[in-house]
């Protein structure tokens, strides 16, 4: 019998808050400040936008060290506390800065904090605490990376417009503290048994393990690391990351296609909303039908959306396309965690997932610039859309190969 206790609730609230603060606020709202900082300090937009690149890369790099730090369970809470101090403190110090190099420095500090408090630690903790409905709980935490963009972007923008970007950063620092406070004050451990409880779905897991042990992967530790599977997975990760960064070019594409900046902003808002719905749906679908089928469905839907945007640039089609395009986001977020556990097992999860997460973030940072360069060189967004179509084909092929050749038999 599945037993969802108050401690399970504590864990999911804490992990949702960490994902919301580290990705949703630190990373996804960074662009709101570019114009104000550029105008106030007399710095070019390109120089200011470099802050997001630095934040993203340092965040990805910091995530590589999470599993090593928490090998000693007593380091879990201190690591979370240090990450919060870097995210909130670095954001607060940005409000006191008028030098570009100091802005870079504080964003690097914020990036380190975001990496320690991001998807890596959230998924590791959720893996330990939730055996049943695992996909749903991973998706629930990760969808909080999109919630601040939907609910708080307008609020942050209004503060910046009314009181300036410095006051905006102070407000962001306070919101980061609000999101992360549960992870500090709520009592939980990395190992649920040390909190006096069991993982959600543990009894069912033990029963299946006893009756059909060859189909269990949660504790598969001695199968060895399939090197080719890792290579294929890295290719999948890179392709999914490239697809996810097309969103950053929607505002410019809307203007380029003659539909105006307002429609571009609407497309971004629609994607952010669809992102949340798609991630939650992905978690439910993966629990019911398996990760592979969920990935394939999201890839097909998002490819359809890109097709509408590329070949039917009228307002209704662009908005509909943006909604469908939002389905690509689970493939570059939730799927990375679930594929890691499906293909490599929980025994290798802490080694593999940080590398996958780092690859995704790094490719994302490079691909945003690459798409901009393709547009500058060609004077058209057609090469950008062709690149995305090619990446979607790679996603479809690689996920089929991974599950067809390497996954445990019980994985759909």
The whole-angstrom Rg is 21 Å
Biggest beta sheet attributes: none
Total number of beta strands: 0
Structural class: mainly alpha
What count of helical segments does DSSP give?
19
| Strand portion | under 5%
- How would the global form be characterised? globular
Distance between the termini: 23 Å
Low-confidence stretches: 215-223
Helix content: over 70%
Order of helices and strands: HHHHHHHHHHHHHHHHHHH
Average pLDDT confidence is 87
Q: What's this model, at a glance?
A:
The chain is mostly helical. The protein is built from 19 helices and no strands.
Architecture overview:
This protein is an all-alpha fold. Helices cover 75% and strands 0% of the residues. It has helices spanning 6-25, 34-41, 45-63, 66-69, 76-94, 100-116, 119-129, 134-143, 147-151, 153-163, 165-185, 202-211, 227-244, 250-256, 261-289, 291-311, 315-325, 334-378, 382-405. The longest helix is centred in the C-terminal third of the chain and has 45 residues, at 334-378. The two termini are 23 Å apart. The relative contact order is 0.13.
Output the keywords.
412 residues, 19 helices, mainly alpha, globular
Question: What topology emerges from the helices and strands here?
Answer:
Blueprint: H1 6-25, H2 34-41, H3 45-63, H4 66-69, H5 76-94, H6 100-116, H7 119-129, H8 134-143, H9 147-151, H10 153-163, H11 165-185, H12 202-211, H13 227-244, H14 250-256, H15 261-289, H16 291-311, H17 315-325, H18 334-378, H19 382-405
Helix pairs in contact: 1-7, 1-8, 1-11, 2-3, 3-6, 3-18, 5-6, 5-11, 7-8, 7-18, 8-15, 10-11, 13-18, 13-19, 14-15, 15-16, 15-17, 16-17, 16-19, 18-19
């Amino acid at each position: 019998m599945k037993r969802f206790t108050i401690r399970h609730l504590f864990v999911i609230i804490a992990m949702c808050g960490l994902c919301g603060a580290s990705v949703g606020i630190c990373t996804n709202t960074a662009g709101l400040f570019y114009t104000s900082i550029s105008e106030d300090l007399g710095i070019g937009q390109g120089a200011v936008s470099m802050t997001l690149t630095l934040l993203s890369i340092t965040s990805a790099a910091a995530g590589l060290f999470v599993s090593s730090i928490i090998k000693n369970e007593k380091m879990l809470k201190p690591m979370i506390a240090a990450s919060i101090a870097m995210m909130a403190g670095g954001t607060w110090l940005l409000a006191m800065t008028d030098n570009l190099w100091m802005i870079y420095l504080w964003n690097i500090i914020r990036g380190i904090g975001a990496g320690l408090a991001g998807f890596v630690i959230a998924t590791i903790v959720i893996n330990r605490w939730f055996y049943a409905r695992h996909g749903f709980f991973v998706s629930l935490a990760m969808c909080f990376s999109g919630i601040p963009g939907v609910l708080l972007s307008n609020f942050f923008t209004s503060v910046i417009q009314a009181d300036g970007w410095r006051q905006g950063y102070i407000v962001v620092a306070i919101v980061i503290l609000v999101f992360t406070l549960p992870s500090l004050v709520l009592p939980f451990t990395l190992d649920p048994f040390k909190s006096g409880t069991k993982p959600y779905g543990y009894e069912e897991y033990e029963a299946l393990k006893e009756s059909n042990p060859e189909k269990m992967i949660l504790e598969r530790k001695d199968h060895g690391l399939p090197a080719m599977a890792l290579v294929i997975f890295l290719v999948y990760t890179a392709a999914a990351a490239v697809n996810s960064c097309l969103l950053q070019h929607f505002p410019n594409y809307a203007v380029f296609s003659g539909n105006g900046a307002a429609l571009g902003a609407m497309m971004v808002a629609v994607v952010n909303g669809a992102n949340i719905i798609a991630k939650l749906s992905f978690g439910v679908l993966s629990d019911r039908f398996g990760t592979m089928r969920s990935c394939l469905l999201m890839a097909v839907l998002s490819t359809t959306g890109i097709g509408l945007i590329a070949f039917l640039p009228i307002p209704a089609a662009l908005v509909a396309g943006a909604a469908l395009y939002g389905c690509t986001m689970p493939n570059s977020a939730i799927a990375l965690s679930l594929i890691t556990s499906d293909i490599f097992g929980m025994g290798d999860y802490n080694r593999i997932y940080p590398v996958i997460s780092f690859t995704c973030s790094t490719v994302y940072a490079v691909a945003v610039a690459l798409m901009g360069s393709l547009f500058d060189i060609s004077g058209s967004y057609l090469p950008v859309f062709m690149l995305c179509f090619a990446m979607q084909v790679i996603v479809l092929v690689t996920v089929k190969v991974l599950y067809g050749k390497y996954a445990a038999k019980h994985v759909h």
